Amino acid sequence: MARLLSGIRVRDEIFAESRPRVERLRERKRPPGLAVILVGDDPASKIYVRNKVKACEKLGIHSERYTPPATAATEEIVELVQRLNEREEIDGILVQMPLPKQIDSHKVLLAVDPAKDVDGFHPLNMGYLLTGRPGPRACTPAGVMELLHRYQIPILGRRAVVVGRSDIVGKPMAMLLMHEHATVTICHSRTRDLPAVAREADILVAAIGRPAFVTADFIKEGAVVIDVGINRITDRARAEALFGHDPDKMAAFEKKGSVLVGDVHPRDVAGKAGAYTPVPGGVGPLTIAMLMVNTINAAERRLGV
Ligand code: GUN
User: Fold this and answer.
1) Alpha carbon nearest to ligand 1 atom 3, residue
2) Do 267 and 185 belong together in one domain?
3) Which of 51, 78, 135, 242 has the most CB atoms lying inside 10 A of its own CB?
4) Structural domain range at position 239
5) Ligand 1 pocket test: which of 47, 48, 126 has the largest number of ligand atoms within 8 Å of its C-beta?
């Protein structure tokens, strides 16, 4: 039987470790402060942002939400970021990705004060990651590393394959695994014979953003499979193809009209992996947990606590 790697369990551990740190900041100075910018009304982004704000409430972190319209110009967002840079009580600034097409995301991310960059997306912090200097790390890859550590999954000398080359997940994920001495391959949509490359992996990270893209032919028997994807399926035939083996999931689909699936086929991974993260309840909760940790780290550093 494949082992389930529970992001919820690890998230709860991280929250429990974070509470006393928030308490200490509140007693000595003030609560950590996080500003979240959500441009437009992408439904998935709205849910992510809501969950981030809820997590702040749970931990006693001050949060502020800014929601400029989908038509906003780059300059408006840059100005908002600059105002937040100046605010003493704001320790972390998060710009939810993706941004609407007309916005130059490079300009926006460059505007964030690197000391308040709780996503680790500023080029300075990306450079710190690349060169192994301390600094904030992108939340999703950092969460995956926490999960691997806390489940004592060996990394040193292992073959790791990351499918997906985004700035948010794929690239930083590969760097973090490499710094812990994995032999890392990054694959993407242009990779020739992707299943064969993926099958080399002792640790396979799927971050492509395509529902159930990773099937049995990608997975080496006994591999550790980390599924970063979250995709909503609304088509009944598709849901049946993915979850026909799982009556509970199909019942949930009938009730809600949709079901979530990762980038990994749920039936295939359960049959072949040695251990894997479920969707939901795998990587998702860890992204939020690491955002809280990055915010607390930024507050402690800024306040000298
Ligand atoms: N969009 C998807 N994941 C993330 C994340 O970790 N941070 C931000 N800001 N946007 C995202």
Assistant:
1) 97
2) yes
3) 242
4) 139-285
5) 48
DSSP 263: S
Model confidence, pTM: 0.98
Mean pLDDT of 107-114: 98
> Has residue 260 been placed in a domain?
yes
**What's the average model confidence in pLDDT over 160-188?**
98
Same domain for 46 and 152, yes or no, is: no
- Phi/psi of residue 220, each to 5°? -75, 140
3-state secondary structure of 73: coil
Q: Which residues does 269 contact at the CB level (< 8 Å), separation at least 6?
A: 2, 214, 219, 225, 227, 276
* Ligand 1 pocket, residue 142 CB under 6 Å: no
Between 245 and 20, the higher pLDDT residue = 20
Q: Is the CB of 119 under 6 A from ligand 1?
A: yes
What is the per-residue pLDDT for 1?
86
Residue 59's CATH number: 3.40.50.10860
Q: Is 91 in the pocket of ligand 1 (CB under 6 A)?
A: no
The answer, yes or no, to whether residue 200 has pLDDT greater than 90, is yes
